[in-house]
## 1
Amino acid sequence: MNIKNYINGEFVNPIKNQWIDNYNPSIGEVYGKIPNSSEEDVEKAYQAAKNAFPSWSKTTLNERSAILSKISFLIKDKLEFLAKAESKDNGKPLTLAKAVDIPRASSNFQFFANAITQFASEAHESVGLNAVNLTLRHPIGVVGCISPWNLPLYLFTWKIAPAIAAGNCVVAKPSEVTPMTAFLLGEICNEAGLPKGVLNIVHGLGSTTGQAIVSHPNIKAISFTGGTSTGARIARIAAPMFKKLSLELGGKNPNIIFADCDYDKMLETTVKSSFANQGQICLCGSRIFVEESIFDRFKVDFIKKVSNLKVGIPVDPETNVGALVSKSHLEKVNSYIAIAEAEGGEILFGGHEVNVEGGENGYYLQPTIIEVKSNKCKLNQEEIFGPVVTIMSFKNEEEALTLANDVPYGLSATLWTNDLNRTMTMTQEIQAGIVWVNTWLMRDLRTPFGGIKSSGVGREGGFEALRFFSEPKNICIEYK
Ligand code: TXE
């Protein structure tokens, strides 16, 4: 099936007629083509967005909210269909796409449908000076949204919903590796009555289509989620044009386990935080640090639990670990397993590709646990972004903190303890944008989402996202 660009409410071929293969990673086969859009396609999308802006930016909040709610409803209504498409395109278990990806895409629209009706401007009265200041928040104009392949519709809509809720028009590009659900979203937007040109979706490679969006002089803000080196490249292009940038990049998140934790809950959750979505979530706890006194017990129990995970084809309801997203990504993850041995790491479980029945040419890898001796090793310093975790023991809080913070990244962290004082001191010292205590991936969409250090700049979620997608203007009025 050939995917098309969605520009001005219509589905169109790329102007230069250049196409890229789209793979089904669970069987390792091409099942369609997607446009490799050029600068001309991006320009066409920009023009459609620009023309739609004057009218869209003046729609009442109630009208905008109603359209976003309708999109949310339609996504929920087509859950089964969208989940199948997502799972086929990405390799993730169908059960996961049904339980997480598609419901969250729907929630993203519903959340911002509600949030925009509660988003208030500020007023500051300059007491004694007979003046009042109003801060108005106007939409920026045409904005760019670029998203990755790991949670395709989930992260695509996480950017688009606040952008259009705030009154902007959008030129968006999903990952070329997982374009399908973004393509299907176009039809849903038409059905929901989103005016033509408010959302335009151009497909293609990062180095061509993505680059054209980032370099476009009149696309004034870019919201990007993806790899850290891509983020740095985008920042280099966007900075001299003074674009607003939100960059959600990689993570190398610590999962810190103290002996006083609720052990069973920790174990159950740690299996998920290590291997959910084949470990391809920027929030996965890929570095596990365990207090010395329970280290041996943890190793035995963790290996046992992980060995029960079923690696299988995504449509099988029993599958826990599906296919990795692409052959090149599988090769990247494999290369780290090879490095582990060279660095003196000990593979406690996994480490091999799996030949899965019904998916013989698919990209399957065992969930892999590697014991490392030092946090300085490559496995602990670089983002692998696959079903590979490392484990190490620590002696005390101080050592745990040092290990947790000694990485270039600072996205999220998980802490397992029942000690209140330790919770309070450690959560304040851990260098991360998000710290979970005795849980993982619990998300309240009102909270700020994002990282520090090489994990990016800016925050998404809640009013932070609406602030990003709007430009504040101060109006100072003096009166007699
Ligand atoms: O991401 P890219 P890739 C990490 C993970 C992974 C690595 C590389 O470690 O192994 O990044 O993955 C678009 N201008 N994460 O190569 O390239 C691209 O088309 C504009 C973490 O797939 O960063 C896609 O739409 N756009 C991450 C998006 O950027 C460009 C999730 C992300 O792709 C571009 C994914 C350019 N020059 C990978 N180059 C997370 N934080 O969740 C690429 N793109």
## 2
Amino acid sequence: YREGLQSQGLWLNTADSQITEMVAAAGFDWICIDLQHGLAELADLPRLLPIVEKCDACKIVRVLSDKPEEIRRVLDLGAHGVIVPMIDTLEQATAAAAACRYPPVGTRSCGPTRAMAYDPKYLAHANDAVMCFVMIETAEGFENVEQIAALPGIDGLFVGPVDLSFSLCGGVSGLGGAVFSDALDRVLAAGKQVDKPVGIFGLNPENAVQQLRRGFTFCSLATDTTLFSNALQQAQTVAAQSSSRCRD
Ligand code: 3PY
Ligand code: MG
């Protein structure tokens, strides 16, 4: 993203090694392990992150909250970057960015247990290499989006469309409406103004492609759980069609 390239990722809601292997081998630019709404816990990361690392995908983790101690631990375990949910204020965003950097720039305490195992020279460049993306998904965060985007240490914004639709439009029925569409334009403009990437969670692959066309820098194409449940439905549809043909 630092070269301004668009990228596609995949979102992991499960904490399963085999699914992570399959996703990593499929060749996505980045993979996000979700600690906020997914099944993974902090203790799963030493098992899952090396699988992603092996396939050269960028290791992103959505943290459970903006708590600095949690952000630091996720980075210590070797994540390249964090997506921090539910950021409302400049203070929250500043603290999240600070938690990602060692002093004097930030407040990160030094103990990169797993990160050093991936990269012995980690300490020399961690402050520059680590990525801190904050989620714009509340009305308050949205109102502050230009100032949040401009903060030093914030590498980019990430839109949570579902929460943002609840907060701005009263629910997911607003996702297709003008208020929501204008909101996305404003977030994109806020990123563009400071030349920082803006990502978004893709609701499905078609939606993800639309968002990339619209100008988002990075977008998740799907989640492991939605892919699996779509495949199940497809299998059931095929089975239902063929069993009705058998009866005929
Ligand atoms: C949202 O859409 O609110 C998200 O956080 C995506 O997971
Ligand atoms: Mg959300």
## 3
Amino acid sequence: MNLIQKTGLETRELFLKGDITCSELVEAYLDKIKRDDGELNVFITVMEDMARAKAKELDEKREKGEPLGKMAGIVVSVKDNIAVKDVRMTCASKMLDDFVSPYDAIVTQKLKREDAILIGKVNMDEFAMGSSTKYSYYGVTKNPVDPTRVSGGSSGGSAASVAAEFCAISLGTDTGGSVRQPAAFCGLVGMKPSHGSISRYGVASMANTFDQVGVLAKSVDDVEYVLSILEGSDLHDATCIGNESLQLDREKDAKSLNGLKVAIPDVFKTFEVQDEVREAFIHTVDFMKSKGAEVEFVHIGSLDLAIAIYHILVNGEIAPNMSRYDGINYGYITDNYDNIEELYVRTRSEGFGTEVKRRIMIGSYIMSMDHSKEYWEQSLEMRHKMIEEFNSVFENHDIILCPTSPTVAVPIDDDMTPVEIYMLDLFTVPVNLIGTGGISVPATKKNKLPVGIQIIPKKGNDIQAIQTAKELEGNI
Ligand code: GLN
């Protein structure tokens, strides 16, 4: 039996039935990590001892017939911007290279409480800014499907950890597509639920009104299962109201493909989309139609400005969020200063990478007294217009469908300009701008690179995306 190929729910069942031990399972993953992670560069920290200790504890509990949590028998990796108590949390930045988290994020607490086995902290773009993991201080994570290509980003390590069979599930974060796009690039399912579904407490903030924890796995069932555990309101995060539609057995609230009203944004017709992505998408639409879905193109005018609005608003939130990394509170401190001014400037110049600096500069400019009216306020207005436009589409449609990314995983040595890279997020950033959920489900053809198809439900109706994803999974 090849344990590491199984989904999380499958390993759990084997464990509960007594067919395998958790120790056996953890050793199988650790062996694979030892074999392949040197080449792929997925983990920043492997939590070998903790994973072994937890596995042993679970094996003993089962032996004695003690109650086991909902995650018992499932091995999980965690993006390195999510706090795990007493474990290094770097956000893939030199700034936090030796920072050890003194507490657990709420999502970590929930997983631990349900007996998940955490196997390690995985690579990402520095502070989650990027789409390739190439902006990590620890170097790029290669795509297990094709190691000459990126695994995507910013949760590239999360996607690669599941695709490389280092674990069954990974937690990522998604501010503008960082769960969905790497899932698409690595042939996995990845979902970011509606904003406010899951607590952000203990998750390093990039842009608070956009950030949301998401789950990557090999199957929609796994993703749904873990989201149902993570969902829930939280007093530590005032924007977190929970999301009942993520509880299990809500399928009755969702429509099946027969009669489903599907909208495709018409930018898809004009935007440059790679041939293999276009083909996979058209194939998906044909499949949905054959099952009785009614599909039509819709015009969403504000999408033309989505990338611009996203970068103005996100950078406006990033700049103040990054101000806490000042060399004094915590993290890296330069050893070369004579006064406080030099301490700040040198610490931040030496501690942050290029992309983070670029965003801090743009964000500070945008938020300055002289420019905030021109950029920030107008973009906020546009964000509201976009929400209204999407809401009116949802009045007559159940879901919006588009590719997750206009390209398949890009080659590692491809050197696109920052703006070219930003443009590739066209299909994912609107979801975070309007605060709804989005799931990427793989359309994987033999001998071809994976393509992700994205399903966007109305805000708070995440079960509809999950239900549709289940019907597409394995059929497209
Ligand atoms: N690629 C997007 C960006 O660079 C999204 C990042 C994210 O979702 N964390 O901003």
